[in-house]
């Protein structure tokens, strides 16, 4: 399968992607554990059906030390016993923040209150930006049908 657009060959994409990559790097440096960032990125990508991002974040999570069992259970995290309460809150925030049309209002007050029990303001900011960033990147990839499977760990860092 070939992508509809080659972002690396288009001048406009090159200009915009420079800033997108800078934003992604800033998020990687945020005060959230790398494993949690990858779990959130993976869950958002699963919801949106972004194969290339699922490929990337599964491999990055494994490289960051995430177990295969936990990676396989992200899609069914509610029923899984392998996630901490903080991880469960982050995954739920990722879902509510991604399914804004379905959730009729986005992240609810009850979830936000639970999130403040596990994350400080800087971490919450990083989490909100991570969810938003992943939704944007998912859409860039889905619209242009970017193929999945060839990602190498660290390829865009």
Automatic annotation (TrEMBL):
Spans traversing the lipid bilayer: none
InterPro entries xref list: AhpD-like (IPR029032), AhpD_core (IPR004675), CMD-like (IPR003779)
Pfam families: CMD (PF02627)
Domain of life: Bacteria
SUPFAM superfamilies: AhpD-like (SSF69118)
The Carboxymuconolactone decarboxylase-like domain, residue ranges: 19-95
Protein name: Carboxymuconolactone decarboxylase family protein
């Amino acid at each position: 399968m070939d992508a509809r657009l080659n972002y690396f060959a288009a001048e406009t994409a090159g200009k915009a992607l420079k800033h997108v990559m800078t934003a992604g790097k800033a998020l990687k440096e945020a005060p959230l554990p790398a494993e949690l960032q990858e779990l959130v990125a993976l869950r958002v990508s699963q919801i949106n059906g972004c194969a290339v991002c699922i490929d990337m974040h599964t491999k990055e999570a494994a490289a960051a030390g995430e177990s295969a069992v936990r990676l396989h259970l992200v899609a069914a995290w509610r029923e899984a016993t392998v996630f901490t309460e903080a991880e469960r809150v982050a995954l739920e925030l990722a879902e509510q923040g991604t399914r804004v049309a379905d959730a009729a209002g986005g992240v609810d007050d009850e979830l936000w209150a639970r999130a403040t029990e596990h994350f400080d303001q800087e971490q919450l900011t990083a989490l909100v930006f991570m969810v938003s960033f992943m939704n944007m990147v998912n859409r860039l990839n889905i619209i242009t049908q970017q193929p999945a499977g060839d990602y190498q760990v660290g390829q865009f860092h």
